[in-house]
Amino acid sequence: MVDILTNQTTNQEFSDFAVEQIHNVDVATTHHGEPSAQVCDLLLNKNGKLYITTSSQNPFFKDLIK
């Protein structure tokens, strides 16, 4: 089943759609001043925020913190 997004789709509806149907997103950061991107799993939509997970040992985590 594919949900159709329209101009009337709320932020909450879009975030729910992203978590439930898209699952994966590219998250872009910089690494030593250069663009860097990683595919992340969207795990949760709560209180208007999308949550992902990564290991604190992953260089991507350090880029997110910076």
Index terms:
single chain, 66 residues, alpha+beta, two-stranded antiparallel sheet, 4 strands
Shape: elongated
Low-confidence stretches: none
Gyration radius over CA: 14 Å
What assembly state would you assign to the polypeptide chains in this entry?
A: single chain
Order of helices and strands: HEEEEH
- Distinct helical segment count: 2
Structure description:
- By secondary structure, this protein is α+β, with helices and mostly antiparallel strands.
- Helices cover 29% and strands 33% of the residues.
- It is built from two helices and four strands; from the N terminus they run αββββα.
- The strands form two sheets. Strands 1-2 form a two-stranded antiparallel ribbon.
- The N and C termini lie far apart (39 Å).
List the helices and strands and how they pair.
Elements: H1 11-22, E1 24-31, E2 34-41, E3 44-46, E4 49-51, H2 59-65
Antiparallel strand pairs: 1-2, 3-4
Give a short overview.
29% of the residues lie in helices and 33% in strands. With 66 residues, the chain is of the alpha+beta class. 0% of the residues are buried.
